[in-house]
Design brief:
Layout: H1 3-23, H2 32-62, H3 74-126, H4 134-165, H5 175-198, H6 203-212, H7 214-228, H8 233-271
Length: about 270
């Protein structure tokens, strides 16, 4: 599959995922992330707004502009511009960072339930039962956390680089959509990795598979992020629906991969 086909699969699999949840009555999985997401978003948003205002006020005070309330002189105009323009820029950057990181915090906390949900989807699709082993469960949970932290570290480096480039006129404007695409990719990667754990793919193997099907990861992360924009409902729906969608997409891709390998092996046998 090409990039655009994979991208379409990453997006359309959410429709399949919603149908799958409804058909197999998996609604109860939505209850777990409710409190976690709400608390994190409220606390995080309140904190970054206060941090942005504190930085602006501190900067104005450092340059002796904080006490200037007269907008008729140049110092007052600078103070007003500083509070409005710089404050808005900082809040936008902090909101982007919050959006990038809060999902990873949620994924770490929700990792056990998301792993179980992905496994449940696999059991239904393949009509098989995975026996529960606490050692395997602990290993998979720690692997999910490790992959999430790894993705967070990579995304952090890219964000820092883009923030530096972002001050360059014209060229810097291109960093905003690039940041979002990177965030979607790593988010989709995290959703897909729950299937990699169960399929006993090593982290490096999972990374290669995701790079090969980067369109699926970007499409999955894109829908996840768009769902998060829905007030209240978004933060409840996104993790559960996206992990189901990613599981369906990965199982389909792996199934096609195995089928192609069998066909190739069969052709080789016939030629012999």
């Amino acid at each position: 599959m090409g990039f655009w086909s994979d991208l379409g699969k990453g997006i359309s699999s959410h429709i399949d995922g919603l149908k799958f949840i409804a058909k197999h009555n998996l609604w109860h999985y939505f209850l777990f992330p409710v409190v976690i997401l709400v608390v994190l978003y409220i606390a995080g948003s309140w904190s970054i707004m206060g941090l942005a205002d504190w930085i602006v006020d501190g900067t104005l005070e450092y340059y002796g502009l904080s006490d200037s309330g007269n907008t008729e002189d140049w110092t007052g105009i600078l103070a007003l511009i500083g509070r409005l323009l710089v404050g808005i820029i900082l809040k936008v950057f902090f909101l982007m960072i919050l959006t990038s990181y809060i999902k990873y915090i949620v994924l770490i906390i929700c990792s056990p339930i998301l792993a179980m949900l992905s496994e449940r989807c696999d059991e239904i699709i393949n009509n098989k039962k995975y026996p529960f082993h606490f050692g395997n469960f602990l290993h998979d949970m720690l692997r999910g956390i490790l992959v999430t932290l790894r993705n967070m570290a990579f995304e952090t480096l890219i964000i820092l680089a883009c923030m530096v480039i972002g001050w360059i006129p014209v060229i810097g404007w291109l960093t905003v959509p690039f940041l979002y695409i990177i965030a979607w990719y790593f988010l989709g990667f995290a959703m897909m990795d729950y299937s990699y754990e169960r399929l006993r793919m090593k982290i490096l193997e999972g990374t290669r598979f995701t790079r090969k099907h980067k369109g699926v990861a970007i499409g999955n992360g894109f829908i996840f992020s768009m769902i998060l924009l829905i007030p209240f409902l978004g933060i409840i729906i996104a993790p559960i629906l996206s992990v189901v969608a990613a599981t369906l997409a990965v199982l389909e891709l792996k199934g096609k991969q195995q089928q192609q390998a069998q066909n190739f092996s069969g052709q080789g046998t016939i030629q012999q």
